[in-house]
Amino acid sequence: MTDRTAIRLEHVGKRFGAGPVVLDDVNLDIAEGEFVCLLGASGCGKSTLLNLIAGLDRPSAGTIHVPAEGTAVMFQESALMPWLTAARNVELALRLRGVPRAARRTQALELLDVVNLADAADKRPHELSGGMRQRVALARALAQDRPVLLMDEPFAALDAITRDLLHEELERVWRRTGRTIVFVTHNVREAARLGQRVVLLSSRPGRVAGEWRIAETSGRRIESPEVAALSIEITERLRKEIRRNAA
């Protein structure tokens, strides 16, 4: 890898047992600090690819290079410990990282402040909305202090307004922390709203079927004309891939 490459996938393939090939010959470089949205129809292998990058599974073919410090993963479900407060949930990640007990509370509050949730530090998950729980989960992922953040459809279960607010939060956190982010979604507008680059996977077997780079990402909103125009272009390509697979 070059000094500026955070993730490199070379001829990556994945097959589970004797089943069909899920991913085939995936080649992808992701730069340090880049925000990449991985898009595709349901079942195309997006989550499988994310799990391979995270090291939660091994590829059947090819190689994957990630930073030595590893990756942090945020899933669709917040998976917070229900008996712990928001701050304690973040502190748990700090403890697993080896942060001394005396420093954990302060760091947890700082991380909750990063996601605009410091005032909910002492609330338990059942006292928080779905969007707030996902923000706690984001703070917990940041607490792992990994250079790469992998996000598997983290906002899919949220209503449109909450999702839009969290898009703004995530963009702000990304700009503030400089993390490399790989964000999996099947929502075309979400990908066009968030990504510096959108990578489209074909339906099974999953291959890189198209890429779009966005030169200027600041100031975008879900209703922005440029987001709408890009969404139309990507959707047309996605439809072609779905039709090709169904033929």
Automatic annotation (TrEMBL):
Q: Does the keyword rRNA-binding apply?
A: no
What high-level taxonomic lineage is stated for the organism? Bacteria, Bacillati, Actinomycetota, Actinomycetes, Micrococcales
Q: Which Gene3D superfamilies match?
A: P-loop containing nucleotide triphosphate hydrolases (3.40.50.300)
Q: What GO MF terms are annotated?
A: ATP binding
Domain ABC transporter stretches: 7-230
Query: What is the protein's given name?
Result: ABC transporter ATP-binding protein
Q: Which PANTHER family match?
A: ALIPHATIC SULFONATES IMPORT ATP-BINDING PROTEIN SSUB (PTHR42788:SF13), TAURINE IMPORT ATP-BINDING PROTEIN-RELATED (PTHR42788)
Q: Which SUPFAM superfamilies match?
A: P-loop containing nucleoside triphosphate hydrolases
Q: Could you confirm whether the keyword Ion transport appears in this record?
A: no
**Organism field:** Agromyces larvae
Q: Which InterPro entries match?
A: AAA+_ATPase (IPR003593), ABC_transporter-like_ATP-bd (IPR003439), ABC_transporter-like_CS (IPR017871), ABC_transporter_ATP-bind (IPR050166), P-loop_NTPase (IPR027417)
Key words of the record? ATP-binding, Nucleotide-binding, Transport
